[in-house]
Design a protein that fits this description.
Helix content: 55-70%
Shape: globular
Number of strands: 0
Largest sheet: none
Strand content: under 5%
Structural class: mainly alpha
Number of helices: 7
Length: about 160
Amino acid sequence: MRMTALRPTISGILRAFFDERMQGTSGVRLQRIRRTEVRLRAFLENEGERGLVPADLALLAAERQIQPADAFCRLMHADDLVFVLFAFVEEPWLEREILDRRMQLALVEKLVARLLLRGLVDREEVICPLLDLRNRLDVARRQLRVDVDRRRRGMSDTPSR
């Protein structure tokens, strides 16, 4: 898709989303939300381009020549985010600690719901990546349940991967 002034960038989308999530939150929960945001932004800067069309790849490469920090998030939009989010809920980006991983999965799901609810993406245009993300969230949640059960039985402190 072509960039327009009316479409918010990923940077603005994430700022609003995480600010809202952090409002009225403190302690360990706040730390988990912040860690997830930092990890997601790092993921997008490192892996985000995998979902871009050639014209956007060229634009991103040019921007990184001028100002590399946060280039992907500053230039790209909600649809670009949806096309790569599936990889954020997989290795090596999936959190290892059980409560952090639970937070990561919940926040990704809420972020996508927000994108759809606010009309930032057209469900029909991104149905395939949405289905792929749903599948990978389901797989990650099943593994989380296995890891929680193992921990409860005292079998392991680390996820099975």
